[in-house]
Amino acid sequence: MPAVQLLLLGCLLWGEGARSAQLRKANDQSGRCQYTFSVASPAEASCPEQGQAMSAIQDLQRDSSSQRADLESTKARLSSLEGLLRQLTGAPAAGPSEGPPRELDTLMREREQLESQARELETAYGNLLRDKEVLEEERRRLGAENEDLARRLESSSQEIERLRRGQCPQARSTSPDVPPGSREVSGWNLENVDFQELKSELTAVPASRILKERPPGHPGSDGADTGCGELVWVGEPVTLRTAETITGKYGVWMRDPKPVYPYTQETTWRIDTVGTGIRQVLEYSLPSQFSQGYPSKVHVLPRPLESTGAVVYGGSLYFQGAESRTVVRYELSTETVKAEKDIPGAGYHGQFPYSWGGYTDIDLAVDESGLWAIYSTEEANGAIVLSKLNPESLEREQTWETNIRKQSVANAFVICGTLYTVSSYASPDATVNFAYDTGTGSSKALAIPFKNRYRYSSMIDYNPLGKKLFAWDNFNMVTYDVRLAEV
Description:
By secondary structure, this protein is α+β, with helices and mostly antiparallel strands. It is 25% helix and 30% strand. The protein has helices at 3-14, 50-89, 102-167, 287-292, and strands at residues 22-27, 33-38, 230-234, 238-242, 251-255, 268-272, 278-284, 297-305, 311-313, 316-320, 326-331, 336-342, 363-367, 370-375, 383-389, 396-405, 411-415, 418-422, 430-437, 442-450, 457-463, 468-473, 476-485. Strands 3, 4, 21, 22 and 23 form a five-stranded antiparallel β-sheet that branches. A hairpin with a 2-residue loop joins strand 17 and strand 18 (418-422).
């Protein structure tokens, strides 16, 4: 094509009217190729210079290259997304260069690590079970040896007593100055003058000089010196143990105020009550085992419990069955359930808990006179109901309805037949704020300072043997000294 025609073509392409120009190619009558241009308007103001036309063509080329690069980038991203989709849906990969995403590799590695840790934990748990069986066998063996030693000691004591009776002379006749019913023992007929003459006397004393009249059923009515009185002071908390895991945020720990063989007043039990299906009861024979966290035995209850209201009394664990108003007596030495009894109308599983919650609808307590249940009913409109329970059969022997709303107090305990409540489970400066005396059937407000050192007291119980309060305060097992004043 001649240069003039090319210049004309550039002018037509660059001009405004050339945007609608058309180029046609056809043979003429003589068979030669002929090019024809058609434009919207036959007249143009001017044609641009040749340099401007080339610049415009270069701009168009750059725009085309940029669009082509964007298209290639979009195609690459689409290909990556298709590969990821195939990985997630399980479809075969499109090519050998495509692999699983980096995030998927990380998740797979973490899963393998978790499975490995789970296998290690299962192995450790199996080892613990085997160790437990070995320790149980050792305990039974030591128990058998202890019984054998006890029999031998008893036999030796009887032999020593027999020998003593054979060596001692008969007592002299009763002298006139010995009261009737008593006996004067003569001096031993031995040459050694260091042995002194012994004399025992029996004197009758009227019972009225020993016993004081007390209301029937009131603590101390049997004449025993219980040291009972009215609570007037609670000491600073003393921390004995801190729970190791989140399951120990709240729970219950206790000692038996009326221990029976093979347990002692130092044997301790602990239950972590965070979670569902609570069945494990940890037993510690010595205080050092309790403070160091090494249980001597683990009881697995035949049914789960709820609440932090369990107690140990007379060799049995008393607890509320999960999601029920049933109180269960579990004998620890034989690991069997001895009694179960529903408390008629008692709330359960969050109907009438203490203010902190925890399904504390039925709170069991022990004082100088025995076993108690602290609960509420719909008939009492949420007020605290206090019942004295028979520790063998769990029958209610006597019941009192108070005027203290259960959900308005943080916890409660019983001392000498009087119910005491605590105002707050979280305030560092709480108080023992109410007392209900079962002997008089009356209540009164109190303001005895009570410290929640760790700001979450979920269990407070009284132990009459040590005259202390036991509490569980935000992972920590603590005790409080108390002072009682005679009424």
